[in-house]
Amino acid sequence: MFNKSERGGCTTSLLLLTLAIILSGDPAHNLYATQPRTLGLIFRDSSANADGYTLFAPMNYNVAYLIDNNGMLVHSWAGSGLPGMAVYLCEDGLLLRTVQTNNPVFGNGGGIGGKVELVDWDGNVVWSYTYSNTQHCQHHDAIRLPNGNVLLIAWEYKSRNEAIEAGRDPNLLIYNSLWPDHLIEVDPRTDSIVWEWHVWDHLVQNYDSTKSNYGDPRQHPELIDLNFVTGLAVSDWNHTNGLAYNPELDQIAVSVRQFSEIWVIDHSTTREQAASHTGGRYGRGGDLLYRWGNPRAYRRDHTIGQTLFGQHDIQWIEPGLPGSGEMLVFNNGYGRTPWYSTVDQFVPPVDSPGFYHLGPDSAYGPAELSWQFIGSPPESVYSSLISSCQRLANGNTLICVGLSGVFYEVTPENRIVWKYVNPVTRYGPQQQGDVLQPGANSVFKIRRYPPDYPGFAGRQLDPVGPIEIYPQAVDEERSRRYRLNSLPTVVRNCIRLTSAEAAGLMDITGRLVIQLGPGENDLRTVSPGVYFIRFKSSPQVQQVLVVR
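User: That's the sequence. What structure does it adopt?
Assistant: Structure tokens below.
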């Protein structure tokens, strides 16, 4: 009754009809209640979880999803490529997303991106910026600053000779190159870089006394030891994986996985000051204002031991939220014994103007946490890579256990009040009841936005059904009446009905999405997912998967 062709982006294929489905007549909660739950919403205590909508982008799929607390899809954005890795909804309603690109030098780097986009509610790219060539490449994270500019993390390439000239121990160059990180701030109105900061400008080393940066790292905690490594001396020496900005202090925090540290730097500097050791609001140029998590990186672990282990998603808790001004981080626990992940909250030793206290020959504090989420038992929550956390308005904390694609909301007492499992793999949404392979549904980071978030102004946030696919449990009579192929036909931008009869495109709850007429029908306004075509004169239905 319909086919898909290559003309105008329409695809073509004839459907066979075999498997049973309910298309209408039953409430959504009845539709899902009888299914064994391994995907989507697993548990919710509606009396205790924070209102809002959760945004996530599966790492292996090109669609970003916005769901409500019942696990129902309310909106989605299809992308041109896989995320690289972050995605956020801005206050002006634009989606900020990173996109993977092909890069001949940095292509095997974990968290590779290369492109940053701003996308409107309807999926139109309103700004795109590529930062990827043989000398540099964006990776992991990018955030929108209050002035509208975009701050992003990137690698820069240093050859073996360049690294040795700077004082790197040649024995620590097993891949014959080094990729130190840097930050750039881009003005989307002009595509110009208006501020930048480079690790390479703030080095110390005690390997080669002939170099200008020779010194004792213990005496210079404001600098970065060029020869500090943990484990294998890979090219991706820093592996910065997260950004945060504090507008009151005009400071930037970065999460540096290979050092198991968070660093804080001054954003008030000019580009010239950021490359130096003086100037700016705090008088230190681009040198580190604060570092925490692993004093061994500056050889002061005799006072405070290592607290972070391959962490992600550092942030200041926002004003007005419980714990405001403190810092929150997902502590992956990679290398901790036993291996388990936590969410750690701590009070940095900072005064109101923004200066950090450091005692003589001691490590930066604090020595103790102000709060921690830990699983029960601890090993039940673990992700060696990726992952995120976020403080919510009711005092709860939203957590993404990244490798397993599991999202939690927990109370200050560590009680889980919401659990959701990402149902999307590289093949798209999976079927309820499926048990996914480890890493198949990984998610880098999630964020929840309250119902009154400015980015939702004027938007319809009606639920359209779950993302996961439900094998319908139907009675024998309905099984005889409605049959379709268990493998959906994949369509993209349009679909062509070969029949002269009109039909309806239904979602999996039986809701009519659009009316279809004879000939070509534009599907570009339809969110990616599973749908069903129903003809009025026929008991048969036909299943389609809309992708981008």
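The chain has two domains: 2-28+471-546, 36-456.
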